[in-house]
Write a structure and sequence with these properties.
Elements (H helix, E strand, L loop, with lengths): L6 H4 L43 E4 L3 E2 L6 H19 L4 E8 L3 H10 L3 H18 L6 E4 L3 H16 L8 E10 L4 E3 L4 E5 L6 E5 L5 E12 L5 H10 L4 E2 L1 H13 L4 E2 L1 E3 L8 E2 L2 E6 L1 H6 L1 H4 L21 E5 L3 H14 L8 E4 L2 E3 L2 E2 L10 H8 L1 H11 L6 E3 L1 H23 L10 H9 L4 H6 L13 H16 L3 H22 L1 H4 L5 H24 L5 H11 L49 H13 L5 H15 L1 H10 L3 H6 L28 H4 L12 E4 L4 E4 L5 H9 L1 H7 L6 H13 L3 E7 L13 E3 L9 E11 L10 E10 L9 H25 L11 E10 L3 H9 L3 E3 L7 E7 H11 L8 E6 L1 H7 L1
Parallel strand pairs: 1-3, 1-15, 2-3, 3-4, 10-16, 15-16, 17-19, 23-29, 25-26
Antiparallel strand pairs: 5-6, 5-9, 7-8, 8-9, 9-11, 12-14, 13-14, 17-18, 20-21, 20-29, 21-22, 22-24, 24-25, 26-28, 27-28
Helix pairs in contact: 3-4, 6-7, 7-10, 11-12, 12-17, 13-17, 13-19, 14-19, 16-17, 16-19, 17-19, 19-20, 22-23, 29-31
Protein name: Probable methionine--tRNA ligase, mitochondrial
Family: Belongs to the class-I aminoacyl-tRNA synthetase family.
GO cellular component, one term: mitochondrion
């Protein structure tokens, strides 16, 4: 084990830094290599590392919650920068993964009643799925629960304990201070302040930096002497002023080190935190989650397996670029470099700190219902257009605004009008003959433009034919310069300007008129215009590959550019003279040709994600005679979201409202906390909720005054007085996770209650404790609201949804399928039979009242004729891993249909005839005492009497 090099703290080696001091940041790959300043310099220029592959990392993502748009942005940004290195001819590696230890994970798993590892396995997979859906070409996906990582942490820890001089290594002591569970860290006294919880009026202390609640904790832990590294850190910052981008973040870091630095408590007592990596020599201590997490970057670089100290060949380390969000700046720019200095290891070469995303300039918040589901965003806008938007609008200096309107505007202007329009003007002209990129490129290769070029200076009337020259010349250098600063937005603007000028060039030179003239001069001019325009497209396609890998590849394929000629060295005019395709005029046949384009039409950008789903549902249910329009709309959806995705959405289009509340198919919910790729996390605002849209469809009031009672359960209509308790259920994070739901304000919950109670296509009941017999043993004739269904008697809810049966072979019949959705809210009430009893009671009610239900469902709805409607079967969709739910419905007579679907669900079905037969069986025992009782307030009871 190599001892700590004291020179690292006592003074730098007498060699010049290889980091040039400059006001702007230069990409590490473009910096001149100088002799290494010191081992923990931000760059390692030793001979053995000269040819080191480019190594870029994301922060590892905490698995206590579902992925959000910020996670997606970080993944895409690092992926783009990695791909940029690759098309520059450099070998590059990208590491991402999940952070799976700590107090938040321990508590979240306990609320779910799960072992922490099981909880982490489930949630880590969601980040893998997000990376796959966004076309992230990561080379490593690390989990801090991996055995390889645990071993690396152990070795790092023992070096900190035993490999350093006495006052520079770990020491044990008593620590007390303000600790934030949500931030997993302590805060100094001057970084906390009093606050009040608005909902309760409770007085608390919070972090000034993050506004997270803190609590005073006193405990014995191991400490890292961070204050001993203060001078070394400040010296490093002074000599590497561009280490952090943007520059103002360096000022924040320096201020913290100068004014707030304290020794770092880097263990937690096992009695308080057991879910983590234990101190290998002190069983009463668990290693601090941030120490554990930071080491991941060197784990995948080979630390602990292929190398153990800086004297070894460190392979990928140091990282060339580490991308982080502003909320974790301190951990990566103070704690991390100090820990590396302690072990005499080189520091990462650069830290890139980005800002956060807002929704239309408002902070994203679950309580506001404006959190973006990245899975559905990818589906709605397609992978590459969304990547393009995130890279175009990303920022390192200010928070970024996300909105569908912004994405729609960028899509229409940059992609459809600029790139797509130019491609179809040049490579797929509307005229019937007679130019081709292949002929134009061949003319250039064979010197066919030489005489024309000589004429340039002599004839000023020909200037418009040469107006694109300067733009073709400067586009690639401008793009490269911006990418070397990791400014993807600036790089995109360089390409956008080139294509915009090319569109203008085409309009000014009018190749559609040149093609009409048979003389050789006009033909030469035509080929010159087509060649220059094709060069602009080719250069743009090469440069945009890191940002839009699929679309750029499609564009280059259409131009006939060979795969081996798609690196940056070819992104200059005339560098590739062996590409092009024969004339391929656009076809005017068919009304759906616009969907078959590189950038096809999109759903209305002003529509929320929820409204897009509603439009799909409405479009598919439409009985319009104009089937061409309907098919065109369907093709548009498929072109945008992918045929497979739309097929799955079609299969599930009428359960979208049940998905809003959560996929809750049995007593314990549907198991997996997050809906996963493809399932929209709807924007539950008061004006866009799908539940509100259902008001337009009329009312189903058959159960408005009816309670369903059996010896095992009581079902009552969902009324306003239930909302407060229901709202309380939905504020519990474990319920939110179990139901895949977002919390709403109380006002929104009341509005949704009204929508659900009056919608034509659903019945909804609150599940309650069964009725007690009257004192004389007689039947209860009236169920008074707020009595039998008081808060302490509420157990959950059950819903029944109607929508067209797409599996029915006879399309002339208006068959309907009914979906059953049941949830028992509190864990203490699950496993007591409420779920099964509720389903049996509901199906009995359906069997007895089916004609009336279908009448209310169809009356006034132009899509169905009352007499033709029929219920063909029942269905429940259950998460694959929810074994209990599947067993419940199987016991009730449902059977599995098909395999696991796109959303990770199993579909269980029962034909309606079979359901009727089972209801008759249940009447002889399973639904003992079934009766329908009048339900209402005191006035209703008096009216009954």
């Amino acid at each position: 084990m190599k001892p700590f090099g004291m020179h690292a703290l006592w003074g730098l080696r007498c060699t010049k830094s290889r980091l040039a001091s400059r006001s702007c940041w230069v990409c590490p790959s473009c910096q001149p290599r100088h002799v290494r300043q010191c081992r923990w310099s931000s760059s390692d220029g030793s001979p053995k590392s000269t040819d080191k592959p480019y190594y870029i990392t994301t922060p590892i993502f905490y698995v206590n919650a579902a992925p959000h748009i910020g996670h997606l942005y970080t993944m895409v940004l690092t992926d783009v920068l990695k791909r940029w290195q690759q098309i520059n001819g450099n070998e590059a590696f990208l590491c991402t993964g999940t952070d799976e230890h700590g107090m938040k994970i321990q508590r979240a798993a306990a609320k779910e009643g799960m072992h922490p590892k099981e909880f982490c396995d489930s949630n880590s997979n969601k980040f893998r799925e997000l990376a796959a859906s966004a076309d992230i070409a990561h080379d490593f996906f690390i989990r801090t629960t991996d055995a390889e990582h645990k071993e690396a942490v152990k070795q790092f820890w023992l070096q900190l304990k035993h490999g350093l001089p006495e006052k520079l290594g770990l020491y044990k002591g008593s620590h007390e201070g303000w600790y934030a569970v949500s931030d997993e860290c302590f805060y100094p006294e001057d970084m906390v302040q009093p606050s009040i919880v608005p909902q309760t009026g409770k007085k608390i202390m919070v972090s000034v930096e993050t506004d997270s609640e803190v609590e005073w904790i006193k405990e014995e832990t191991w400490f890292f002497p961070l204050t001993k590294y203060k001078d070394a850190l400040l010296k490093f910052y002074d000599e590497n002023p561009d280490w952090i981008t943007p520059a103002h973040r360096m000022n924040e870091v320096r201020n913290w080190v100068e004014n707030h630095l304290e020794d770092l408590s880097i263990t937690r007592p096992v009695s308080r935190l057991s879910w983590g990596i234990p101190d290998p020599e002190d069983s009463k201590q668990t290693i601090y989650v941030w120490v554990d997490a930071l080491i991941n970057y060197i784990t995948k670089a080979g630390y602990g397996t292929r190398w153990h100290s800086a004297s070894d060949d460190m392979g990928l380390w140091p990282a060339d670029l580490q991308v982080i969000g502003k909320d974790i700046l301190r951990f990566h720019t103070i704690y991390w470099p100090a820990l590396l200095m302690a072990l005499d290891l080189p520091l990462p070469k650069r830290i890139l700190c980005h800002n956060h995303w807002t929704m239309s300039n408002r902070k994203m918040s679950k309580s506001l219902g404006n959190v973006v589901n990245p899975f559905f965003a990818v589906q709605r806008w397609d992978v590459d257009p969304l990547r393009y938007f995130l890279m175009r609008n990303g920022s390192f200096s200010k928070d970024m605004s996300y909105s569908n309107q912004l994405i729609g505007s960028v899509y229409a202007k940059d992609l459809k009008a600029n790139i797509g329009n130019l491609f179809y003007r040049i490579a797929r002209p509307k005229v019937t003959a007679k130019w081709s990129t292949k002929e134009a490129v061949a003319t250039y290769r064979d010197g066919g433009f030489q005489d024309f070029m000589n004429m340039k200076a002599a004839d000023s009337s020909q200037e418009r034919y040469f107006s694109l020259e300067s733009h073709l010349k400067k586009a690639t250098p401008a793009f490269c310069e911006e990418m070397d600063y990791c400014n993807t937005g600036g790089a995109i603007r360089a390409v956008f300007n080139l294509l915009r000028e090319t569109n203008r060039y085409v309009s000014d030179t009018e190749p559609w008129n040149l093609v009409k003239n048979p003389d050789p001069e006009s033909r030469a001019l035509l080929n010159w215009v087509i060649f220059n325009s094709a060069e602009a497209l080719r250069i743009a396609g090469i440069l945009l590959q890191p940002i839009m890998p699929t679309k750029a590849s499609e564009l280059l394929n259409e131009l006939g550019v060979k795969p081996e000629r798609r690196t940056v060295q070819y992104a200059r005019k005339g560098k590739d003279v062996d590409y092009g395709t024969e004339a391929q005029p656009s076809s005017d046949k068919g009304r759906t040709k616009k969907w078959d384009t590189i950038f096809p039409p999109t759903p209305n950008a002003n529509d929320s994600d929820a409204e897009v789903m509603e439009q799909l549902r409405t479009m598919l249910q439409s009985k319009t005679k104009n089937k061409m329009n309907q098919m065109a709309e369907l093709l548009a959806m498929e072109a945008r979201m992918g045929e497979e995705a739309v097929t799955k959405l079609r299969m599930n289009h009428s359960q979208d409202e049940s998905q809003v509340r959560g996929m809750r198919m049995s007593e314990g919910g549907s198991g997996t906390a997050y809906p996963g790729p493809g399932l929209p996390n709807f924007n539950l605002s008061r004006t866009t909720s799908l539940r509100h849209a259902s008001r337009k469809q009329g009312n189903m009031r058959i159960n408005e005054k009816t309670a369903i009672a059996t010896s095992q359960v009581l079902l009552v209509p969902y009324e306003a007085h239930h909302v407060l308790n229901y709202h309380g259920w939905m504020q519990d994070p474990s319920i939110q996770e179990a139901t895949a739901s977002e919390p709403m304000s109380l006002e929104e919950e009341y509005e949704n209650q009204q929508s659900w109670r009056t919608a034509r296509d659903k019945l909804t009941f609150i599940v309650c404790e069964p009725l007690q017999a009257t004192p004389d043993g007689g039947d209860v004739r009236f169920v008074r609201a707020k009595d039998a269904d008081a808060d302490d008697r509420m157990r959950g809810d059950i819903n029944f949804f109607l929508y067209p049966d797409e599996e029915e072979e006879d399309t002339s019949q208006n068959g309907l399928i009914g979906e059953v959705d049941v949830m028992i809210a509190d864990t203490e009430h699950r496993g007591q039979g409420f779920g099964g009893a509720s389903v049996r009671a509901l199906l009995t009610y359906l069997q007895r009242r089916l004609a009336e239900i279908l009448k209310e469902h169809t009356t006034g709805d132009g899509s169905l004729n009352q007499g033709d409607a029929k219920l063909t079967g029942l269905m429940a969709k259950i998460k694959q891993g929810n074994v209990g739910s599947r067993a419940l419905f199987q016991k009730l007579g449902f059977r599995q249909r098909g395999e696991v679907n796109y959303f990770g669900e199993v579909t269980m079905v029962m034909e309606w005839g079979e359901a009727e037969r089972r209801v008759e069986e249940w009447a002889r025992g399973e639904v003992e005492g079934y009766r329908e009782v009048v339900y209402g307030v005191l006035a209703d009871e008096l009216g009954e009497s």
